[in-house]
Amino acid sequence: MNRTIKIALGSIVIGIIVLGLKTVAWQITGSVALLSDALESTVNVATAVAALIAIRIAQRPADRSHPYGHHKAEFLSAVLEGVMIIVAALLILEEAYQGIRNPQPLDAPVSGLLLNGFAGCINAVWCMVLIRQGRRLKSPALVADGQHLLSDVITSAGVILGVVLAIAADRPILDPILAGLVAVNILWSGWKVMSASLGGLMDKAVSDDLLRDIRSTISDHADGAIEAHDLRTRHAGRMTFIDFHLVVDGDTPVAQAHAICDRIEAALKKRLDDAQITIHVEPEHKAKHSGVLVL
């Protein structure tokens, strides 16, 4: 079992613990705002399970039906997370509407707030682990899960502050109003998760900084070639796909042209551990005098 799978399993365990704490906090207080926080935690558990499934699929080797691998499964998981976050927000809005129509005083607020605060602290620590490790392991599913948890932490902090204000002002209606604001924040979080993942599904290119590094690496290790043009890149989970045309002198032996390609490929893979590189060799008359010029 690799580290990515272990972290994904940890998310499920943490999610169940946090959900239990927040559910108890809601039950002993009757707070609609705390209920909204607990509902978001049910999404945390569901998305953690979806992330685990997606990560296991994404790590399968390429096969006859999927010659480029299964890496995009993680992007699908992240889109699913976004959809589930939005569904949770709509459920919270319904609860908030009913609470505004019939506001209720809160019971045992101190113990409930302490439980909710403790659950929020657990989420805060774990979301930092997910985001940091997800970026290091190039796992979109873990990063999306961490970003969702971060929004949950912010939500929990806002909920606690709002409930305290509702009690201090003796205005129970502030509790469902706060739940509605929480739902709006969750909707925004869900949209951000979905939009980031859709970029991966649509074969979004690498960042400008990384593209400059790739161009520089090709130029520095292409001695014997004339130019590289039609450079294209895309991300798919932890994989980076790079393809381009490499122009060499028409009299260059095949073995020598192949050696140049091997040298470039080795340099790119040293820069990007998980890179799949395709190089199309062309004779000099195919030069476009653009792209990466080899000096």
Automatic annotation (TrEMBL):
Membrane topology value: Multi-pass membrane protein
InterPro entries named among the record's database cross-references: Cation_efflux, Cation_efflux_CTD, Cation_efflux_CTD_sf, Cation_efflux_TM, Cation_efflux_TMD_sf, CDF_Transporter
Domain of life of the organism encoding this protein: Bacteria
TM helices/strands, residue ranges: 7-28, 34-55, 75-93, 113-131, 152-170
Pfam hit, one: ZT_dimer
Localization annotation: Membrane
Main location: membrane
Domain Cation efflux protein transmembrane: 11-202
The keyword Membrane is annotated on this UniProt entry: yes
Record key words, sorted: Membrane, Transmembrane, Transmembrane helix, Transport
Family per similarity comment: Belongs to the cation diffusion facilitator (CDF) transporter (TC 2.A.4) family.
Name under which the protein is recorded: Cation transporter
Taxonomic lineage of the native organism: Bacteria, Pseudomonadati, Pseudomonadota, Alphaproteobacteria, Rhodobacterales
Classification via PANTHER family: MITOCHONDRIAL METAL TRANSPORTER 1-RELATED (PTHR43840)
Gene3D superfamilies: Cation efflux protein transmembrane domain (1.20.1510.10), Cation efflux protein, cytoplasmic domain (3.30.70.1350)
